[in-house]
Amino acid sequence: MVVRRVVQLTSLGLFLTLLSLAAAASAPDWAVDLFQRMDPSLAALTMLASQKWIWALWPAAVVLASGLLFGRAFCGYVCPMGTTIDGADKIIGRGKTKPAQWLRGMGWLVLAFLGGAALAGVSLVFLAAPLSLITRLYGLVALPAAELLGGAAVDIVRPVADDLGLNWLAFWQINAPRFDTVWFVAGVFAAIFALARLAPRFWCRYLCPSGAMLALFAAKPLIRRRVSDQCTGCGKCRRACPMGAIEQNPLLTNHRDCLLCRTCASVCPENAISFLPGPIALPTKAPAFSPIRRQLLLSGVGGASTAVLAYGGLQLPRAASDKTALPTPMLLRPPGALPEHDLLKLCVRCGLCMSACPTNTLQPIWFEAGLTAAFSPTITPRLAPCDPRCTACGQSCPTGAIRPLTLGERVWAKTGTAVVDRQRCLAWNQHKKCVVCDEVCPYDAISLVQQPGIPVSVPLVDADKCGGCGFCEKFCPVRNKAAIVVNPLGELRLDHGSYAQNGVMRGLNLHLVPPGGQSHGHVSPTNGPAPGFTD
């Protein structure tokens, strides 16, 4: 048990470390999304929906193969979702209600539902893939909350640090990112944790699609629970098993559910239980659970039907050749994002790109683009600009929904075009001198020109030079809605090929201002006034 706890905490610590390093843009590219690429259901369903093999998801195949040797040990030792649920179970405690037997096959039905939707070309894996869910919890809720508390603590001790001459502490700033949908994510996990009152590890036992996939390979693992003839049939092991894997006869084990956690061995008064490879002397395997085919079929049909209904929506992103859908309104996708139809098949809504975004401009959306786009990332320029020298989102994406770009290619990954609202612009409408948008534009895409009847110079945007970064919208001094807004007009999204070459072919002229020019470089989230303005 001690060894298991150490392995669990080490794995969770590594997961959180990589997540924190992603947010600090310090993790190596191969490691930042390692855990997400281990998720079997995330990998299989994403490839099924996109109808393409994704080599980057090979760690999931290793996890599935481990089931042949160690059963569902990944769930019991490595998965951060399982470790988090174990901790919540300890706090909440176990209820007295015994779950109904029919719940035992729910994980298969969830998997069939998601598989049916994927076969129809709609990825709903984000609803249940454990590594996607747990990344959202820690990346969008827990770590930002910890940073917020840390910032408050620093503010409290700052006067003392100043008096003591601790300048490093007195000037230390912790800018905690903030995300939309945070209460929804927290509510979902509150419900998952509350299920412990019905049974320990309720999610892992009854609902997890990755656990169901791993169970397919764990029917006869090499290392499994073995019971010697010293067993007296007291039943302590059965009552202590967190997965309900031990049958009424304690000699019998459902290996598809066994985590190799050794809880049963730790409570056995006769030391009759071991977990070793080799031949089985006693019949230690219960009849394998087999979900009713009709239920699986109905669940798969339900998933496919959900996909069909989603396809019936006006705003569902489809192939560019499909003229029956309305274009998705005002969604600025991250630089390097695939065309919308492909993006939503590959995006698993893990939130890694949002956690990695240094300016906090990437936010999850709700349902403005339909169910299939829910919780996918969008740039929010009024909150913060998208730094044209940053490639963090593409480097952190586990499935390739956002392409990893070099810095040279990133400059050409046009995310939209800024448009001046002349009815709100201080120069155009009120004839007040304002040069903010021109000064902050790193592409030098805005020119101040004289117009007849207007005593001050007014801004005009050169669409071929605008990269859609949103610096102008962020720093526009007009309150509430900015007078210059970035929209997806002219966005450049490719599933393959060079952004620079395609940009040149389209007549774009995207170049950053040289150092020492107008560029303001990397930025941090801020709600302060525009450059040159004071509150």
Automatic annotation (TrEMBL):
Which PROSITE patterns does this entry report, sorted A to Z?
4FE4S_FER_1, 4FE4S_FER_2
- Membrane-crossing ranges are 53-71, 106-129, 181-199
Domain named 4Fe-4S ferredoxin-type: residues: 219-251, 254-278, 337-367, 375-407, 416-451, 457-489
Keyword Iron applies: yes
One Gene Ontology cellular component: plasma membrane
Query: Which GO terms of the molecular function aspect are on file?
Result: 4 iron, 4 sulfur cluster binding; metal ion binding
Name by which UniProt lists this protein? 4Fe-4S ferredoxin iron-sulfur binding domain protein
